[in-house]
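Schema walk-through. Below, the input block comes first and the output block second. Nothing else is stored per chain. Lengths vary across the set, and this one has 146 residues.
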Amino acid sequence: MPKVISRSTVASSQDARPTESSTAALRVYYCICGEFILVIDKVLSALPRRRTDNAIIVRAQDSEAGKAHVFKLNAVPGDSLIIERQDGGHERQFRQNCPRCTLPVAYQPTPGLVKSSEFFYILPGALTQMQGQVPSDAFDGEVLTQ
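--- output ---
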């Protein structure tokens, strides 16, 4: 069998303008159990948060107010909850859970597919960029009991 030798050269310049594909890098996020949950075109810390529960807002559909994010959510439908807010109002949440450990990681205001709502929300402290690393805000608001 003849030996195959190939050579390639990669050239880059610090002065080159960024291409559209290089600025649209995708970010990967994991559940605290290590399961892949989300790939998205933005860093989650750069996205806005809800005032009611500090959840991260992800635009799932294009509208006049803005363009939808490019994302893929790997989650399974969970329970439907009715949350009572401090102002006396109520909100229905259709939860999305981790397929491995079944922890809730996100929710949306309508049933069905994630992209069927204009927005979906990532629960605070639910996702991390490093597998096996607990996010710093995972236990915010928790009360330790002994």
